[in-house]
Amino acid sequence: MSKILMVASEVAPFLKTGGLADVMGSLPAALVRAGESVTVVMPRYRGVDAPDFYRLREDLPVWLNGFRHRTDIDACDRDGVRYLFVDAPWFYNRDGVYSSGGKDWGDNHIRYGVLCLAALAIAREIESPDIFHVHDWQAALLPVYQKSWFGGDPRLMRARTLLTIHNLGYQGQFGPEAMGELGLEQRLFDAGEMEFHGQVNLLKGGLVASDWLTTVSPTYGREIQTPEYGFGLDGLLRARSGNLTGILNGVDYRDWDPATDRFLPANYSPEELSGKLACKRDLIEYFGLPPEAMERPLIGIVSRFAEQKGFDLIEHIAGALADEPMTLIALGSGSPHWENMFRNLTTWRPDKFAHWIGFSNEMAHRIEAGSDIFLMPSRYEPCGLNQIYSLKYGTPPIVRATGGLDDTIEEGTGFKFHEHSPDALLETVRYAIRTWFDRDGWQDRMKRGMAKDFSWDQSARAYQDLYSHLLTR
Ligand code: ADP
To answer: What is the pTM of this model?
Structure first.
């Protein structure tokens, strides 16, 4: 058994803005089931609370640039995993996790620097791990601090470091003054370390300093080593390719199974599919779509409205889609441009388009269940979870063949297109719509998808093998 200390900026069910939280909410428990000991550290943001929280440590000091920051450590234990919350209200008790009013907090580097330093203080004073497993740019400073500040501390230096890239598009870049503000030596402001086009790049620092790197699907692991997907870090990732592994994310079927999903008006399974029709009817009525919508395929979208997700393609084909025998419902929020696009589509053709702008876990479940087809035409996708949920919900997805979408969807379970172009998307959507009208063939397709198993246990084993490898190196 190894002792793993994970650090991340969001963990379901405590705080979630995207797929990282889903992973952090289920990978640790899967590792514990496989025999590991896992502690997870995250910030105690505003609203992060539960009746089983208890205070583990009062006033664990974090020193940064001669300032002593007070942090209290709160905890809870679930499924054998210990969750620790760094309570530093000055940094985390705010009205937005990463941003407010569409603007990132100006001190995000300090907020997440403090998270990493608090995790190192936990390792020194509360429980020392064999492995620090850190996630994304918000936790990438941990290996940097470990090697630069604590190089002489044997308790910390024995531990190996593993950095998982959940999305290379988010690197945590700040002005050069961040080096001083983070208490980092100027020698690290170098192209071979954390400097990137004149900025301080926290993810890059972690990519250089960590013992091993992983990303969340094998295909994305290869893609990020190319200029097209590398966001300027492909050269570094190629140089580290011997220490870079792609491990596909799993999903948590305790939360995502139409047979037990408590958010649905009716449950269903591959053996008894009638509940799915009830879910579709419920959705159509809820969104005020015409009853004829029951007679044509309902296409669902659940997504952050970000450039990455391919909304430019949907914008191009929306006019043509309106002429197809289909209905489209989108749930999401993010870029005002895409939010307005869906508002305008609904105003223009309320018989064909509906939307919910915002974040609603319940609505995400209802759309997965009530839709016939799921749409995810991402420009790039490190792993993607919604297409995997869609398989389980009997909602064959249309995906672009990239990253984890390519690794999880086959022609028999969904629909793939390759080129990032409106024509390629439109052709595939039209083909999916035509295919839906062949009812028997469609049910076979649904059932093939529903039979797929992407539960965490297999992926957890891959992480376990990697931990063992790291500890014997
Ligand atoms: P990403 O991490 O890039 O956002 P993923 O597909 O890996 O994409 O994970 C997204 C997760 O966030 C899924 O669990 C999805 O259901 C959820 N999600 C995204 N947008 C919303 C929303 N507007 N409301 C509810 N859940 C959402």
So the answer is: 0.94
